[in-house]
Amino acid sequence: MSRVLQNYGNQVTQGYHSSHHGIDLIGSHGGTDYVVAHSAGTVTAAVSGYGNRQGSSGMTAYGNYVDVTHTDGSFTRYAHLQYVSVSKGKKVNSGDVLGYMGNTGNSYGAHLHFEYWNASGVRSDPTPYIDADLPGLNSSTTANSSKAKAEKETKDITKVVVKSVEGSTAQHSTGNLTDTKMLSAGVEILIQNGDKIMLPCVKDDITLESHRKGSPAVLKFSCVKDSNLNFQEGNAVSLRVNKANVFYGYIFEKKHSSDMPVIQVTCYDQLRYFKNKDTYIYTNKKYSDLIRMLVGDFHLALGTIEDTGYPMSRAEETTLFDICGNASDETVLNTGKVLVQTTW
């Protein structure tokens, strides 16, 4: 398996040379994949908001990219991502998802551009390390790196705890998660991995927390590991209560219990990507236009959105949450209408 792709091995499409200071990769199956951290470290750059810009140069040529700085001061770069799923300052372990392979920046087809910079700030050929430890780092360093602590907020939240009952082993079918027929009344968690839809055996409580503003909804649960259950970080998750859709999001973390076959799972809805910091300059756009633009740039799902009516021009360099919040405040101030957002 690859050290930089989640589900497949590496297929190098362009090597390191004098005019190409990295290597280009696709999955061994010939397609795209989730991009993961090669080694433990801290995210020191998480740049997003770019589309395809063929012929561009400088930093723009990287498109959406992530830099992870390692304990020895070296760093690895992961470029041309379709989207970025981490924020600057986040601590990551080897194998943690950073984003998804894409075609942004100076790119002529979806792939990962991977670079290695040593502690002196000099780029070198990463080919020898693509499936091996970086110089000065080893697997024990990676394994002992701590996970980033969950961000704490003082804002009011809505918290729902569902009492679950352990049932039979996990089940699965094929199809699309959003089209799957309701299996029964009560509480269901469905996980989609590729074309397989799995109904895990949930242990203990299911916790769903949502904040009024500025944070994504988070779903936490534990499930029993068995031979039918196979899912990864980045897979889609749905929570349904009495046949009603309550939550739709993605797995951001899975942890195995050391003393029993139980997997602890943390999921966020797609607003998790709105914690990314970016720069946007726009002219004569309504708040509804801004939402459509951001959703399009980050390839997110969008339901029905009303025309908010008030055009504005702004220049922002902050999180997407704050960009939307500032536009919402200006719209409310000038129209007197209170705006409500939902994510399902």
Explain what the structure shows:
- With 344 residues, the protein is mainly β.
- It folds into three domains: 10-154, Glucose Permease (Domain IIA); 159-269, Thrombin, subunit H (Beta Barrel), CATH 2.40.10; 275-335.
- It contains three helices and 21 strands.
- It has helices at residues 139-143, 287-297, 320-335, and strands at residues 10-14, 23-27, 34-36, 41-47, 64-69, 75-84, 91-92, 97-101, 112-117, 123-124, 157-163, 171-174, 187-193, 196-199, 202-211, 218-224, 236-241, 244-256, 262-269, 277-286, 311-319.
- The strands form three sheets. Strands 1, 2, 3, 4, 5, 6, 7, 8, 9 and 10 form a ten-stranded antiparallel sheet that branches.
- Helix 2 packs antiparallel against helix 3.
- The two termini are 35 Å apart.
- The model is unreliable at 140-157 and 162-184 (pLDDT under 50).
CATH superfamily of the largest domain: Glucose Permease (Domain IIA)
CATH class of the largest domain: Mainly Beta
- Strand tally: 21
Measured by DSSP, the beta-strand proportion falls in 35-45%
Quick description:
9% of the residues lie in helices and 40% in strands.
Labels describing this entry:
about 350 residues; mainly beta; Glucose Permease (Domain IIA); Thrombin, subunit H; ten-stranded antiparallel beta sheet; about 40% strand
Topology summary:
Elements: E1 10-14, E2 23-27, E3 34-36, E4 41-47, E5 64-69, E6 75-84, E7 91-92, E8 97-101, E9 112-117, E10 123-124, H1 139-143, E11 157-163, E12 171-174, E13 187-193, E14 196-199, E15 202-211, E16 218-224, E17 236-241, E18 244-256, E19 262-269, E20 277-286, H2 287-297, E21 311-319, H3 320-335
Antiparallel strand pairs: 1-2, 2-9, 3-8, 4-5, 4-7, 5-6, 6-8, 6-9, 9-10, 11-15, 12-14, 13-14, 13-17, 15-16, 16-19, 17-18, 18-19, 20-21
Helix pairs in contact: 2-3
